[in-house]
Amino acid sequence: MIAMAEAADETLQRRIEKLERINAALMAHVERSMDQQGGAYSLFQTAIMLEGRVRSRTEELTGLMRRLERSNEALVAAKEEAENANRSKTRFLAAASHDLLQPLNAARLSVSALTDLPLTPDAVAIAGQVERGLQTIEDLIKTLLDISKLDAGIVRPVVKPAALRDLFGGLVASFKPFAERKGLRLTLRGSGLVVTTDVVLLQRILQNLVSNAIRYTESGGVLIAARRRGGTCRIEVVDTGRGIGEGERDLVFEEFYRGGGGKSAVGAAAGEGGRGEEPGLGLGLSIVRRMAQALGHPLELASRPGHGTRMALTLPIGTEQAAEEIRVAPIATRLSGARILIVENDQSTADALQRLLRNWDAEVAAYRDLAAVAAGVGAGSVAPDLLILDYHLDDGACGLDVAAYLRNIAQAALPVIVTTADYSPEIEREVAGIGAELVHKPIKPAQLRSLLTYMLT
Description:
By secondary structure, the chain is of the alpha/beta class. It has helices spanning 2-115, 121-152, 164-181, 199-215, 284-295, 347-359, 370-378, 399-410, 425-433, 445-456, and strands at residues 160-163, 185-189, 194-197, 221-229, 232-239, 299-304, 308-316, 339-343, 363-367, 386-390, 416-420, 437-440.
């Protein structure tokens, strides 16, 4: 019985141990299950948190993108507004310039006609002062208009090869008398190169630089030099003026800036002129910089106060065979007996132009519009040798219509000079299209006389 009991006890013990092992295994399984369930929950919680963060960052990024879009739209609108303002400014200045240049044109022609009459020395001096004042006004109006066009991007350079020889020769011929009156040397070096540029704009740049250099140099001289550097040409205008202080070297390029005692000889037409010369307008380097930028020609300034200033312009080298010639106007002679027909709707300009031409011994007939010309033809007026026509006539009429009418009657290409205060390229193309010459107002009497002589002979 004991043995049986012991055996039963061992069996029970074994069952208990087995149950304990099963229980331990079950507990381990449960614990592992709980751990897995806990990890999944943790991952689930982390996923929810990350999703929230992603959503938050996405919303934040979306907001930034929308603000950036609005900012870009605002920038585009501001740019368009600025461009419209520039175009409006240019149109306004063009219209205002036309209206201002008309009476200025009449005044200059009248003064020129006056100086051709016998006058006392005092009257001649006064007429000269009036002429210089009118020239200053004209320069200011034209320069402001040029600056406005450059700022608005209207000026489109016509880039082609051009020989520096003629350009430099013209500069020396124009400015040497001015330099000699001040006791200055005007020296030229290296003019045999050919460059690629817009001749008209380059000429304007160099005229400004040389004029300012001579105007504000009190002793010594001015050098115009061209040097080849690889595939480029470096044109320099060097003076022995007062030089520019470090603090003024950016300011000299600003409009209407006029420096003090340290102002350069080639500064922006600023400062006090030497030896009684009139000061400039303070626009010289401002327009030089704009033109150089329009051409893509780097402009450099170097200066030592008390020793002078060097302005340098870098241009690409051009091809000799394609170089553009720069023509010099012929010397004027008298116009005795030439029959000239004028069509001008501004009465003061017409009167002044008639007086000037008659002083040059020309026979003049003046009309206001095409109808008046047709009436004169019907009355048997003498056929003209040359026409001087204002482009803009009353009621939107155009002077080119008068040219077409008279050429049709004459069955010949009568020589025509078209005058206007409008500098738009469209008018230039129209005038060139009929083979006429364009003269911008205010008309320079010497230029007109030279052109008349050339066309009539």
